[in-house]
Amino acid sequence: MDPKLERPGELDEWEMCWYRERLDDPALLDACVVVVIEESRYLAVPVGGKRRGGYILLDDTNHLEQLRDALKDRDGFPSVRVRWSRHPDVCHSIAWGDPHPRTTDQNKVLEFYGFDLDAVERAWKEENENV
Fold it and tell me: Which one of 45, 90, 110, 120 is separated from 21 by 20 to 30 angstroms, measured CA to CA?
């Protein structure tokens, strides 16, 4: 079955909310798409503003190339590629935009993906305050 592109809907609201609370530029969500392959839904947030790259983790190798092809040549999704995992316990991914930064500085990685550091810290505290 060929992948289908959709606008995010009710089924995607949890993930949309997660990004909305953390992105430096939540308006990027206006241009995001959901790739539907069989029963699976993959939310793809484009690059733009401070967001220089994006990715989706997949453990279903049958969907990798379909997802890549669905995003290829779309505005906001430059250089779409498969990143094969070298370790059996780590998922493969579809990535777009600039290459992932080679750094151990987590703040630089978060900024590369367009996240607001204060918003990420705030969300982390809220998620862990009752743990």
Answer: 90
pTM for this structure? 0.90
Mean pLDDT of 94-121: 95
| Residue partners of 44: CB distance under 8 A and separation at least 6 | 32, 33, 34, 35, 54, 56, 71, 77, 96
Q: What angle do CA 12, 18, 23 make, to 5 degrees?
A: 120
Distance CA 126, CA 124 (A): 5
pLDDT of 28 over the 80 cut: yes
> What SS3 string covers the chain?
CCCEEECCCHHHHHHHHHHHHHECCHHHHHHCEEEEECCEEEEECCCECCECEEEEEECCHHHHHHHHHHHCCCCCCCCCEEECCCCCCCCEEEEEECCCCCCCCHHHHHHHCCECHHHHHHHHHHHHCCC
- Dist CA 124 CA 43 (whole Å): 21
